[in-house]
Every structure is written in C-alpha cells, then in structure tokens.
C-alpha cells in the first residue's frame, strides 16, 4: 500500500458537541471541563466523511451543514510536557457565502 | 421463505428494567424462569441455552450461556453465547432458531441480562490503539450520544425536523410505557420537561437520549412440531431474523468509526439501517404494509424517526409527518414502541433485542394489557449496534 495525501478541505456533513466530560480513555484538557464541538466532514476530493473535534474555540454556533472546513493540527493532550497532536476541523472564514 | 422455516415462541419473560447494581445472573434467572413458566416447559426439557453476552461483568458475562445454565442447574444441555453489540439478543435468538430448523433440537432457551455502570458507556480499561471503539474516545471524546447528535442534526438539516418533533417522540413513548410493569420510567413526560433537561450532545437533550439500565429478557423457542405436541396449535411464530452487515461502501458514519468509506465508489441504493429490516421482509415474504406494530431502537428520540423510514413505514423525510399525525402512537395506524421503547426502559445491551421480541409476542397474543393493539397480527423489531451489527426479528400471530 502506498501512502496518499487526502484533501485538507471538507464540507460539514453534520456536527454536535460534548457538553459533559467524556469518560476515559479521553484525556480531559481542562479542569473544570469545557465543552467542545465535534464535526463530521466529507473530504472534498475523496468523499470520505471524517469525524474530528472542532478547532479550539469553535462552537456549534460557528458550524452549519454544508459549510467548508479545513484540517488543522492542534495539541490534544500533554504527556511529560510533550504535546500529543490531533487533527481538527476549522471553519473556513467566508467560505459559506462564496461557495453556496 | 415458507412456513417450514417458522419456529414457535412458546414463552417469554422479563425482569423489570431499573438500576440496582445486582449481579446480572440474578436478573437473567428471573427472566428465564418467567419464560419457562409462560411456556409451560420444565427446565430439564431445555436442550439448548443461548446467552447474550455482557462485556461489562467479567468472565461470567463472556460465557453467559454457560453461566445461566449452571445457575439454573446443570442438565447437560448444549450451551452457546452470542455477542453482536446491541444485536446480541437477536443473534442469540437466531442461533437457537437455526439449530431448531436444522432438526438438531426442539426446545431452546435464550437469555439476555445486563448490569450497567452509571453514565456514558465506555471502553474497558487498557490502551488499545488498534481498537476503533477505544480510539474514538481517546482522539475525539466521541461518546455514543455524539453519533446520535450527528444523526439528529442531519435530520434537521435534510428534512426540517425540529427539536419539538424529537420531544414528541419522548412524550409518545412515555405515554406508552405508563402501563408497562417492566419499564424503568413510568411517568408522563411533557415538552416542558424535555426542554428543561440539559443539552448533552447538541441538539439532543438528556431526555432525548436513552439511559443505561439493568434488566433481563428471555424467550423459549421451540420447533412448530413441539409446540403442537404441547397443544399450542397457533403459537406466535418467528418468521425471519435478519442479522445482515453493511455493504461496501458504507457512507454513513457508524459507531464506533472515525471515518466512512469513500462515496466515489458506486454507493448501494439501500443503506445499512434500511437493509436490516429489508432482509427480514424478504426472508419472510412479508412487507411493511402488513405490520401491526414495530419495536425499534430509540437510543435517541431522533433515531426513532430514522427507523420509521428504515423499516419502510414511510418514504425518506416523511417520519416527522407520520409522528405528527399520530400514526405511530397507540391507537394510530402502526404504533411504534408500544412498550415505551428505550425511552422508558433504558438500554440493557444483551437483553434489549429480546425485550423487543417479548413485547411483540405479548401484542400478537393479545396479552399486552392497557397498551394492547387491537387485532395485532404482525410485528417487527429493529436495532443497530456497534461494528456493523444490526438486527430485525419478524413475528406473526
């Protein structure tokens, strides 16, 4: 199998959030807990829906079905002072109006 | 398929759903003895015991078939245990059915029981980077309600469903469950109650999402010949059991997956959830137009609406209309979840699919008391679980 780069751009298929702290193996990122949004987004080129947390600071108010998002990489948690990174979905500013 | 593939539901029994934290075996025994008494079958005449596995109660849960057989008293009966996530009960039932239809036994006892922890269902302890169920929690904090929230939002966007529609499902099921002695929640719920409950996974609130419960259900399944020999000329019959898996490409995010298959490949015209009931209809030669009732897996209120379409009660996008017109309430054209559903029970994973069969059986016998659907002839159960599992059981009077 050959590694193949996937689209970084995607369209929101649906979204939700996690108002209560998920149980382990989720590693809480703050104390007290702060809710985060979760996005299911369909990759533009490959038509694969990939779930991921929304980028830091993004709430469900910033999301809508069909809107454009792009992949960003952010810290998920720290182990011994080292950031462990994860993919996240971030709305593309102004993209909704342009592309619809 | 013809009547020669029918098996008889000779007895059904349940332990009420609740939250007591007692060993699951205790619940299972109560349900098993109730089913045996209902069937008029002595435990020593049971030739096969099939358990639905519970994964949250240690080794005795992994081998629940043997655990129940031992607790009832070793008789030398064959034992088997089935795990298929939420479809475990149906898979256990199908194992018993297949052995009966193969002529290898006449009397089987199928039991599912669970004791569940409080709060979100979560993976067992330990790091497993190759386990999709573990990964979705670790990398995204995606609980089961996360997926329910995604489906609910999608319904709102595609079909104009509203949170008021979702609340209406809860209100309907809470009314149905009022008269069910086995239901955990027997209290009428109002729109204001739903609105007052906290959001768990936007747009779903606490009262839109089913709880996790303790409970047990059992079914005595026999050959038609055995039923006749016991003087049961017209027992409730299992006409079909569907345990189909998804077809590639599966383009809807399913629990516990992080990604779907690519929709660039030709997508099947029938999605996974639709294919579950469709296979049961095809196997039995019975269609959704023949249904008197359905018991569907309302893990969330919004998901019950998806099921209306997936079991063929209405075309895609019409579920809200069906609900609003009262078609799926008791007294309506085809009541859905007359038992009160998971909304009133909460989920006891290995017991739940069997509990659905118990309710349909009582309805088809005319023994459902205040929630009886007059003249019920045909009923279907439907559910979906993790890792490509789903099931439907089609029964007729």
Can you give a write-up of this model?
The complex is a heterodimer of chains A (100) and B (397). Chain A is 5% helix and 46% strand. Chain A is mainly beta and 100 residues long. Chain A starts with 8 loop residues before the first strand and ends with a helix. Chain A is built from one helix and five strands; from the N terminus they run E-E-E-E-E-H. Chain A has one domain. Chain A has a five-stranded mixed β-barrel with strand order 1-2-3-5-4. In chain A, 34% of the residues are buried. Chain B is an alpha/beta fold and 397 residues long. Chain B is built from 14 helices and eleven strands. A nine-stranded mixed sheet of chain B has the order 3-2-4-7-1-8-11-10-9, sandwiched between helices. In chain B, strands 5-6 form a two-stranded antiparallel sheet. In chain B, helix 4 crosses helix 14 and helix 7 packs across helix 11. The longest helix of chain B is centred in the last third of the chain and has 17 residues. At the A-B interface, strand 1, strand 2 and strand 3 of A face helix 5, helix 6 and strand 5 of B.
Summarize the structure.
The complex is a heterodimer of chains A (100) and B (397). Chain A has one helix and five strands, in the order E-E-E-E-E-H. The C terminus of chain A is likely disordered.
The value of Rg of chain A in angstroms is 14 Å
Spatial extent as radius of gyration of chain B: 20 Å
What sort of overall outline of chain B do the alpha carbons produce when their principal axes are compared?
globular
Largest β sheet strand count, sense and barrel closure of chain A: 5 strands, mixed, barrel
CATH architecture of the largest domain in chain B: 3-Layer(aba) Sandwich
Kindly report the name of the CATH homologous superfamily of the largest domain in chain B.
Thiolase/Chalcone synthase
Strand residue content of chain B? 15-25%
Number of strands of chain A: 5
Strand order of the largest sheet of chain A: 1-2-3-5-4
Q: Which series of helices and strands of chain A comes N to C?
A: EEEEEH
End-to-end separation of chain B in angstroms reads 17 Å
Given the structure, what is the number of helices of chain A? 1
| Biggest β-sheet strands, sense, barrel of chain B | 9 strands, mixed
Strand content of chain A: over 45%
Unreliable spans of chain B: none
How would you write the strand order of the largest sheet of chain B? 3-2-4-7-1-8-11-10-9
Whole-number mean pLDDT of chain A: 93
Q: What gap, in angstroms, lies between the N and C termini of chain A?
A: 36 Å
């Amino acid at each position: 199998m050959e590694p193949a780069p996937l689209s970084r751009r995607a369209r929101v298929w649906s979204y939700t959030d996690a108002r209560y702290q998920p149980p382990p193996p989720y590693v809480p990122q703050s104390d007290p807990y702060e809710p985060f949004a979760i996005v299911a987004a369909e990759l533009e080129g490959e038509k694969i829906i990939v779930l991921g947390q929304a980028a830091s600071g993004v709430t469900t108010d910033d999301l809508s079905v069909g809107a454009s998002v792009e992949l960003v990489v952010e810290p998920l948690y720290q182990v011994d002072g080292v950031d462990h990174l994860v993919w996240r979905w971030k709305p593309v500013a102004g993209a909704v109006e342009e592309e619809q | 398929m013809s009547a020669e593939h029918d098996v008889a539901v000779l007895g059904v029994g349940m332990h009420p759903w609740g939250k007591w934290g007692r060993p699951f075996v205790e619940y299972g025994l109560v349900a098993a003895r109730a089913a045996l008494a209902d069937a008029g079958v002595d435990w020593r005449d049971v030739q096969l015991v099939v358990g639905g596995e519970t994964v949250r109660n240690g080794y005795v849960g992994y081998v629940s078939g043997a655990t129940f057989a031992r607790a009832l008293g070793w008789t030398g009966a064959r034992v088997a245990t089935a795990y298929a996530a939420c479809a475990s009960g149906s898979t256990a039932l199908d194992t018993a059915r297949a052995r009966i239809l193969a002529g290898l036994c006449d009397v089987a006892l199928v039991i599912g029981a669970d004791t569940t922890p409080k709060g979100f269902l979560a993976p067992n302890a330990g790091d497993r980077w190759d386990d999709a169920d573990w990964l979705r929690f670790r990398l995204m904090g995606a609980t089961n309600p996360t997926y329910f929230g995604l489906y609910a939002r999608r319904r709102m966007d595609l079909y104009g469903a509203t949170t008021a529609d979702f609340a209406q499902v809860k209100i309907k099921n809470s009314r149905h469950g009022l008269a069910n002695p086995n239901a955990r929640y027997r209290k009428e719920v109002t729109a204001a109650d739903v609105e007052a409950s906290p959001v768990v996974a936007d747009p779903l609130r606490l009262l839109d999402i089913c709880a996790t419960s303790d409970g047990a259900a059992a079914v005595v399944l026999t050959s038609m010949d055995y039923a006749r020999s016991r003087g049961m000329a017209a027992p409730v019959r299992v006409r079909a059991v569907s345990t189909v898996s998804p077809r590639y490409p599966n383009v809807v995010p399913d629990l516990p997956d992080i990604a779907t298959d690519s929709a660039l490949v030709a997508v099947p015209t029938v999605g996974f959830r639709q294919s579950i009931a469709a296979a049961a209809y095809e196997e039995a030669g019975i269609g959704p137009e023949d249904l008197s009732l359905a018991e569907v897996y309302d893990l969330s209120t919004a998901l019950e609406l998806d099921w209306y379409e997936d079991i063929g009660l209405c075309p895609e996008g019409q579920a809200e209309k069906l609900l609003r017109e009262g078609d799926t309430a008791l007294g309506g054209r085809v009541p859905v979840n007359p038992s009160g559903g998971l909304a009133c029970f909460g989920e006891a994973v290995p017991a739940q699919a069997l509990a659905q069969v118990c309710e349909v059986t009582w309805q088809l016998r005319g023994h459902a008391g205040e929630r009886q659907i007059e003249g019920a002839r045909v009923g279907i159960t439907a559910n979906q679980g993790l890792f490509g599992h789903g099931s439907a059981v089609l029964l007729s009077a």
